[in-house]
């Protein structure tokens, strides 16, 4: 490969876009660690399936919305002799509802999982990157962080906040060999989207100039480029990939 083997950590890396990112980083020659929600009984079977396809992942349970839980994660990774060079903050959830009907618990949960996680996870792996003089932090936002979306005041606010975090942190570590960037995917053919009723899904597709949903592997290829040496001059960027649905 002619490049250093580095270790990447992908939060929420056991499904959807996270899984595609984990696979692409592995294909690029990196060691890959994925996180999943604590006590997820399906992870062992998932790891076995991935291994049968040639993907050798390490997996850890963590609640990214909880600082104590992320501290335990960092300790466990360190205890296992691993160091994280590339961090992909991908874990996220939706709890959709109009503001009129949205209760505080579902506002709070989405903000903590999608936005507080930026602090909780990044804080623990940043200093070692700075000390080594090389690091990549890639934060997964969403088209709805810039465009907004009906029924997603919680999600849109959190995802807009992700890029604010990116821009500020990028400036803090710009001279330390660490880059911080945001990727804003549009609508992808993941389980989350495929679960939407056919009629609604068709309306979403009709609103995309390309007339199709994105494929997780397309976003993953972008993330993999940003995680490499060739992207060293890129920091504080928000790169959209959404089939032309929203341009800004």
Write a structural description.
- This protein has 248 residues and is α/β, with parallel strands linked by helices.
- It has one domain (7-240): NAD(P)-binding Rossmann-like Domain (Rossmann fold, 3-Layer(aba) Sandwich).
- 46% of the residues lie in helices and 15% in strands.
- The protein contains nine helices and seven strands.
- The protein has helices at 16-27, 43-52, 67-79, 104-132, 143-147, 153-173, 191-194, 198-206, 216-226, and strands at 7-10, 31-36, 57-61, 86-89, 135-140, 178-185, 238-241.
- Strands 3-2-1-4-5-6-7 form a seven-stranded parallel beta sheet, sandwiched between helices.
- Strand 4, helix 4 (104-132) and strand 5 form a beta-alpha-beta unit.
- The model has no long low-confidence stretch (mean pLDDT 96).
List the helices and strands and how they pair.
Elements: E1 7-10, H1 16-27, E2 31-36, H2 43-52, E3 57-61, H3 67-79, E4 86-89, H4 104-132, E5 135-140, H5 143-147, H6 153-173, E6 178-185, H7 191-194, H8 198-206, H9 216-226, E7 238-241
Parallel strand pairs: 1-2, 1-4, 2-3, 4-5, 5-6, 6-7
Helix pairs in contact: 1-9, 3-4, 4-6
């Amino acid at each position: 490969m002619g490049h250093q083997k580095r270790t990447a950590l992908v939060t929420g890396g056991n499904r959807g876009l996270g899984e595609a990112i984990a696979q692409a980083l592995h294909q690029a020659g990196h060691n890959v660690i994925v996180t999943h929600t604590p006590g997820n009984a399906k992870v062992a079977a998932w790891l076995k399936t991935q291994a049968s396809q040639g993907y050798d992942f390490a997996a850890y349970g963590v609640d990214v919305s909880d600082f104590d839980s992320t501290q335990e994660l960092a300790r466990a990774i360190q205890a296992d002799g691993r160091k994280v060079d590339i961090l992909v903050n991908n874990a996220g959830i939706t709890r959709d509802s109009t503001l009129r009907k949205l209760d505080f618990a579902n506002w709070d949960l989405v903000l903590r999982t999608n936005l507080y996680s930026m602090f909780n996870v990044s804080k623990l792996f940043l200093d070692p990157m700075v000390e080594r003089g090389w690091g990549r932090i890639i934060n997964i936002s969403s088209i709805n962080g810039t465009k907004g979306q009906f029924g997603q005041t919680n999600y849109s606010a959190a995802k807009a906040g992700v890029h604010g975090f990116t821009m500020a942190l990028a400036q803090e570590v710009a001279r330390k060999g660490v880059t911080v960037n945001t990727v804003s995917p549009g609508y992808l053919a993941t389980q989350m989207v495929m679960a939407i009723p056919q009629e609604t899904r068709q309306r979403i597709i009709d609103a995309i100039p390309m007339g199709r949903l994105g494929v997780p592997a397309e976003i993953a290829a972008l993330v993999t480029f940003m995680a490499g040496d060739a992207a060293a001059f890129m920091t504080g960027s928000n790169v959209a990939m959404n089939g032309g649905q929203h341009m800004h």
